[in-house]
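User: I'm putting together a small comparison set for a docking exercise, and I want a reference complex before I start. The sequence is below, and the ligand is aspartic acid. Could you produce the 3D structure with the ligand included, as structure tokens?
Assistant: Of course. I'll restate your input first, then give the structure tokens for the complex.
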Amino acid sequence: MTNPKTSILIIYTGGTIGMIEDAQSGALKTFNFDHLFNEIPELKKYNLRIASFSFDPLIDSSNMNPSNWIKIASTIKENYQAYDGFVILHGSDTMAYTASALSFMLENLAKPVILTGSQLPIGVIRTDGKENLLTAIEIAAAQKDGKPMVPEVCIYFENNLYRGNRTHKFNAENFSAFISANYPSLAKVGVHIRYNHQAILSPKINFLIVHSQLDQNIAILKLFPGINQTVVDATLQINGLKAVILETYGSGNAPTDSWFLNSLENAIKKGIIVLNITQCKGGSVVQGKYETSSDSLKIGVTGGVDMTTEAAITKLMYLLGENFSTEEVKKLLSISLRGELSEEN
Ligand code: ASP
């Protein structure tokens, strides 16, 4: 049962959920919140106070960027006391990045922030958007003993509630578009919403702190058999580069060619952070497990444990924006700040 005193703010950024077909080209384009609201009369049946804030212009999430994340975070900050939970309507393409970024930006979060969207627009008969939005609202409003059930930044999509900074969009076709390979669902939704209480973070008691300095001097270098020195050096020598995510193979393995290791070592000596993240969607980086990752360890590559690339990139933006020293950033990268990586017990 929902409580009429419970209030939810929907932050509508855009995405397929509210799109309609352009009459001339047939391409999907964003449309306003009233359209969306009218398509879901069920919303009025909820015994909740629901308000909305819309981005203007609404965007396809391929146009999402750190200044939009700051806009979302500051909207939450300004409305934090007035609402019990927040639902963010967002395109699925970059939803995992936004959820990861918000998890780092919103320190001491004690209320639910649930991102959702859909693969089919809300006006389409078979849309997945209705169920996603209605359930996201119900989860954002869910409380036990006066406390929110899920005080985390999450993604709700097709029957699963995930910790946002553990997700990756892996399917452009299925309604089930996200995976969280290294962390269990926070809730499974069928006839009932079954919360996985053990997996959910406890609400923080300190005041919410919103971090809005994000440093974008970061690159991703994805390895592939045959990658050449020109490509590696061009990346590592980017002017102003502070950190690079090295997307490695398996448990963090990389070529052992001396040109490759020398290039990495020179970058690290210049103060560039090299963060080892696996290309695999499940499992963890364990530097030193194979000979092909022992050298990385020796030259000072930082292990990213089982973080997703989305979590790694946004964590780096946040840590570098906070002006920690290089050594502090490296230390914090290997520690769980918001449940984004698995720490050994
Ligand atoms: N291109 C869309 C977006 O990310 C896809 C979606 O909404 O699922 O905004």
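The mean pLDDT is 94. The CA atoms of residues 108 and 207 lie 6 Å apart.
User: Thanks, that's exactly what I needed.
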